[in-house]
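--- STAGE predict ---
source: upstream dedup step, 1 unique chain passed
mode: sequence only
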Amino acid sequence: MALLSFLNANWFTDLFDDTPTIPIAVPIDLTKPSKIETKVRIKEKESFFATLSFRYKDYHDAKKIRKFIGYNVYDPYSGKSIAKYKYRFVKKDLAGGGVYIDKSYNPDGTTVPIKMTIYKLGENDTRTLFLEKVYQTKGSNGGGSGIFREFAYLFLEEGKYLFIVENLKGFPELQGREVVFMIHLVHTK
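--- STAGE serialize ---
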């Protein structure tokens, strides 16, 4: 009996499950309509953000990406604006990188429509629809090795999920640029 309970322990089955766990990062092509699929294993009930990370090569490239992604900040929980930038500030910041704009520039940046479909996977990978939504992603939420655009807040139970992420519009100006779809933990204080 002790052997059976040992074999049934969740950590034991984890040894044979190669499904990726959070955080995940999968390249997505935004230069044309495209789709990626990835399975994810959630070990325990947690909150996550879905994010697009726009990678850049150097300071000047970062300014070009910043022009595309925008300056205004949106809350991934509600989609509401939480910080607006004035044209004067944006013009000065971009001009410092050799990128110029006129008064028609929108500090929200370029809106990228992303359709995200999530299925919870059961035995034999049977699918139960968890979420299907089109997000009109805009603005930015910070940076580091890339400039981030967090666009969805997800609360996921333990289990396996299939994420299908579709870019619904092509943006040829991103040719040669690395963009990564990420799912990562919400870090709280």
